[in-house]
Amino acid sequence: METKPTLDPDIYTNLKALRLLKYKAHGFDFLPNQPINSALTGRHVSKLRGRGLNFEEMRHYQIGDDIRTMDWKVTNRTGKPHVKIFSEERERNVYVMVDQRTSMFFGSTGRMKSVVAAEIAALIAWKVIDSTDRVGAIIYNDSTALPLSPQRSANHVLKILNEIASKNQQLKAGKAQDTQSNSFAKLFHQAQRLVKHDGLVILITDGYGYNERSEEQIKALCQHNDVVLCHVTDPLEHDLATLNKMVLSDGQLQLSVSGQEAQLRDAFAKDVVQAIDNFTAVAKKYRIPVLPFNTVDPTDVQLRKALGAS
Q1: Cα–Cα distance, 65 to 52 (Å, whole number)
Q2: How many distinct structural domains can be found in the chain?
Q3: pLDDT tens digits, residue range 183-197?
Q4: N or C: which end of the chain has fewer CB within 10 A?
Q5: For 63, phi and psi rounded to 5 degrees?
Q6: Which is nearest to 101 in space by CA: 247, 249, 22, 210?
Q7: 150 in the same domain as 19
């Protein structure tokens, strides 16, 4: 009887590995009150909305009530001061958008970017339901974008993680089935249908493929929701244009490439370095907090560090 070959965990993830991250999903959160050294604080990023408010009742003003809750129309009509009473929603929708495109199937010394993205999504999903919020997802690759509506249950998280693992294990070296900009467009098309308002949208990606249309859709998301970018890059991507020589492999074949060739060096600078810088600039333009992730350090450690945990 043939046994199924074990996949290298640095190259491909699986449901079991993502499920076990439940026990590392601590020491961070996405609530409005963040540690002072968190990437979600400071004047350059918007404060998280937290859960929304539901209107409960109208009643007479009492000493100590916040004057900002005064309903002036009712007060003027009745001649007596009235205030609106709100209660905090018990649940908030959190949407993780997980990039599993061909561009994510890259790693120089540690794990693939696609594996890191899957781990970030798993850690966040487990933490979200532990905080009694609902978690939904859009898992997208080169050809499809799969939406999963927000729910609050461990079984729903497992469903999300299973879909992520499935998309992850479909990745292989080669040419993408669609352009990066088209795959981004499919993501935002699904986001427009799935994401409503007052939610938290967490985009986990390397940022390749954005264009002016994508920028408009990012702006639209920011108008009614909090948006956080988990930006996954590999250390080698920042150095591709300056290396004298490197060897690339898909696990079976190897290719030696020289960075001294001017045309190749310019192509690297345009497609890699510029892509990273441009997408970061878009995030800064719309005051989107950027949490940087690399393919070398443990993902849970990076997440806690980015959110200010000691």
Answers
A1: 20
A2: 2
A3: 777 888 898 899 988
A4: N
A5: -55, 130
A6: 210
A7: yes
- Cα gap 38→291, rounded to integer Å: 9
Residues 83 and 110 in one domain: no
Does 65 share its domain with 103? no
> Would 3 be classed as within a structural domain?
no
Q: What's the CA gap between 143 and 214, in Å, rounded?
A: 17
- Determine how β-strand 134-140 pairs with β-strand 53-60: unpaired
Based on the fold, state whether residues 272 and 191 are members of the same structural domain: yes
DSSP 245-306: EEEEESSS-EEEEETTSHHHHHHHIIIIIHHHHHHHHHHHHTT--EEEE-SSS-HHHHHHHH
Q: What number is the average pLDDT over the span 203-223? A: 83
Does residue 157 contact residue 96 with C-beta atoms inside 8 Å?
no
Q: Which residues of 231-260 are buried (b: 16+ CB within 10 A; e: fewer)?
A: bbbbebbeebbeeeeeeeeeeeeeeeeebe
In a domain, 124, yes or no: yes
What's the pLDDT band for 56 if we cut at 50, 70, 90? low
Global pTM reads 0.78
Secondary structure (3-state) at 83: strand
Please report whether residue 188 resides in a domain: yes
Give the pLDDT confidence score for residue 44 in this predicted structure: 38
Q: pLDDT tens digit string along 106-134?
A: 888 889 999 999 999 999 999 999 988 89
- Is residue 260, in this structure, part of any structural domain at all? yes
**Spatial contact of 9 and 115, defined as CB atoms under 8 Å apart:** yes
- Cite the DSSP H helix spans in the chain: 15-20, 72-78, 113-130, 154-169, 180-194, 212-224, 262-268, 274-285, 299-306
68 and 139 inside one domain: no
